[in-house]
Amino acid sequence: MFWEKKLQSWVDEIRHRAALPLRLVLWNGQQYDFSSANGTDSNVSPEVTIRVPHASALTYLLTPSLANLGEAYVEGKIEVEGKLKEIIAVGNALAANYLKPEGKFGRIARNFRHNKEKDAEAIRYHYDVSNDFYKLWLDQNMVYSCAYFEHGDEDLDTAQLKKIDHILTKINLQPGQTLLDIGCGWGALVLRAAQKFGAKCVGVTLSENQYALAKERVAQAGLSDQIEIRLQDYRDVTGTFDRITSVGMFEHVGIQNLPLYFSHIRDLLADDGIAMNHGITTTDINNGESPYGGGEFIEKYVFPHGELPHISVVLKTMQEGGLEVYDVENLRRHYAKTCGIWADNLEAHAEQVKQASDDRRYRIWRVYLAGSAYGFERDWMALYQVVCHKSGHSATTLPWSRRYIYDQH
User: Fold this and answer.
1) Residue-wise pLDDT tens digits, 379-393
2) What range(s) does the DUF7884 domain occupy (predicted)?
């Protein structure tokens, strides 16, 4: 049959290029092991098994981009067995050994048109799954951004609290100051800013689920007089704030909109104020997404219209928006570790996660979190915290040395 010849040719080509700990099992019981390369036997034993229940699913395998493999798994076209880290590594190896790094499956830069309606829709798609869904695998404070492992051995709860303190210490937050948190999530940062640092806070989000729970948490903490949570687009915020934070939000802004995004932050910032942008960046200097179709999968299933700029673009557009950069820190390793813990938590609560959402959503996040850990580990993506203030104004509230960031921990 035609498919048999095509499949055999594909198997032979993969085997010629690399020995993989992979076994492919077809609907008719036929199986292929990929443990030899260049005709040489290897001691590599199968750690991952892909089961193909129907011939129609072979089309996903014959062009094994991360987008195709991910879609086949998410939509139930194939079943995959093995430890999650090995599954992701084998999937990437299939793509890397079969696809050309340039062209369609390379680090393509995609630009999307962003407006308030589309951005709100994208946020609702990702965040308004279910608060219970996120509670099952995030830390107890529900912080959905890169943690800070000061020593590398902290548990997730500790590392997320350290991340918030790291941010609030970096911006030198003082009692009585006003703080705007753009993309406030479920309120963890503004709660900490009010409780520990004595700030008066406004948190904005486009997620109705986040808004409802954040307001509830603020009320339960007895901090309604210090914290206001708004269901509001950052572009509609007015006023002046001593401090501004944006954590895990600017990925939704759009590369073309970054100068306007940063200029609006400048407009909201007091003359001697300090702001911080904490966000994911690509490591491709041309603003390309994750290679081998990984970015395509994320766009389709996880973050519609998300765009990652290179750090050089972040610094350039900050300057264009009227902000001077004061401090830059790369937390790439920290996000690899964070995503790995999230992936483990998701798997540990698999049945509860499926009940809180559904099997398809579980499969999407299983691939996404483990794949993100893999991408951060291999420097496909990074996470930068950038502290800045208004250009042309003296940052009188900032110490001369960076020592203050660490002395107060």
Assistant:
1) 999 999 999 999 988
2) 14-97
